[in-house]
Queue: 2 jobs
Job 1
Amino acid sequence: MDLFAGFDLGGSRLKYGLVDTRGEVIFHRHVETPGNRGDLLSLMAECWERLSRTHGPIHSAGIGLPGIFSDDRKRILHSPHCPFIEEFDWNAACAGILGVPFVLDNEANLAAYGEFRAGAGGESRCLILLTLGSGIGTGIIMGGEIWRGACGAAAELGHMPVNPDGALCACGNRGCLETEVSAGRIVELYRELSDDQAVGSCRDVGRRALEGDPSARRAMERAGSSLGRAIAVVINLLNPDTILLGGGVMESSGFVLGPAREQAKRHSLKAAFDCCSIQPAALGNRAGFIGAALYAGNVFAPD
Ligand SMILES: [Zn+2]
């Protein structure tokens, strides 16, 4: 059975693995993301060597990169969270490392493709994945294809302006959805609401919410409400049948989903809302490499 490799580069971790033609994960691992491009390329070469040595011939590979990826130029045009990957010839570099056919894309696009093919995507005709973590990743799958827009910059809901007086975002604007709903903002909200400055992570806030801490619940619910209003815009614009919510924020608390659904319903058109399912994503942080591998398998479909 053919095997496909997937790489998913994030700000803190490089996740990679092998997936077979049925979408089953054969192997997966993660390593820390190095702080510069040279070390990253050496690390990818090591990972590839390990995959090839332990599992034999690999049919093709997909590589997900964090940032706006230009399919025409095969370059990352802008990467707020990983600037050292910008304006570099990834096509040539990956050709030197891999030696099999490969695809490059934005990691959130590939994560959405992973959910579409092997996760909670079902028979969706228009699926949107929002990944809530230190930032917000977005991927759109329409008619089974990744929707990239004119130059690869589509599906960046995290940078939708929602609060003119909000915090400065990594993209350079102020009050983006990403700054209002991210893990870091939830920690800040909790500190404001509770006067407890000791809480260190969104996971801690999630745990406190589960234990009944009203400030923790309120912080999660406020983030969920902001997210829900943004989802209403997406519903009215694209009329999707499936919106999936994933990422560390969703995993650390169930208190985001309810308010998100409620506000999405309140602010979107009834007809569009009624045919849209808003639910948790299924593949967790494996969606990116699984989607990368399956997308490569699709582009370079074996005979
Ligand atoms: Zn932004």
Job 2
Amino acid sequence: MIRVVEPQAEPGLASGLADVLVDCVEGGASVSFMAPLSHARARVFWEGVIDSARRGERLLLVAEDEAGVMGTVQVVLDLPENQPHRGDVAKLLVHRRARGRGVGLALMRAAEDAARAAGRTLLVLDTASIEAARIYTRLGWERLGVIPNFALLPFGGYCATTFFYKALA
Ligand SMILES: CC(C)(COP(=O)(O)OP(=O)(O)OC[C@H]1O[C@@H](n2cnc3c(N)ncnc32)[C@H](O)[C@@H]1OP(=O)(O)O)[C@@H](O)C(=O)NCCC(=O)NCCS
């Protein structure tokens, strides 16, 4: 099940999201953090994200099953005043236990719907993940180009990032 996190306290949510982030970093994903990423540090990161979502600065979506959080994505809404129609998609993450079942695609569809409902008509993102890029292409995102050596991989070495945008109908 995929849902947008509501602005109320949810005990355990930051911890469940931290499980997903730690798993992605251990799996070698370039998602802002270097390895090793402790669960405590990841939880602090997510507590900040949840607070930001409560302030209305971003939409936070989570995908859950009976074992807990299996994936997440965000749409950042807190942009300069001359870009009120735009959102930045960030941190599409699916735990390795739940990959290859359409969770990532469903999260992105839900993120687009939530952004549209929030009045946004243009979304932008960048990704170092070939798997994620296939999802964006499948959903009709326009691929802009690649910046080499954009970030570090969690265990070292540079990776490129590819920028995409999508105009929401
Ligand atoms: C990128 C990422 C989010 C994709 O998540 P996912 O849930 O595995 O994505 P999906 O299941 O929707 O799609 C993955 C593949 O599974 C396939 N798939 C989807 N449902 C399926 C099913 N029921 N049976 C078999 N295959 C299926 C999709 O067709 C897709 O295949 P393709 O890549 O060959 O086209 C995940 O790999 C991840 O978290 N990576 C690490 C973090 C990262 O780098 N994120 C990107 C940040 S921008």
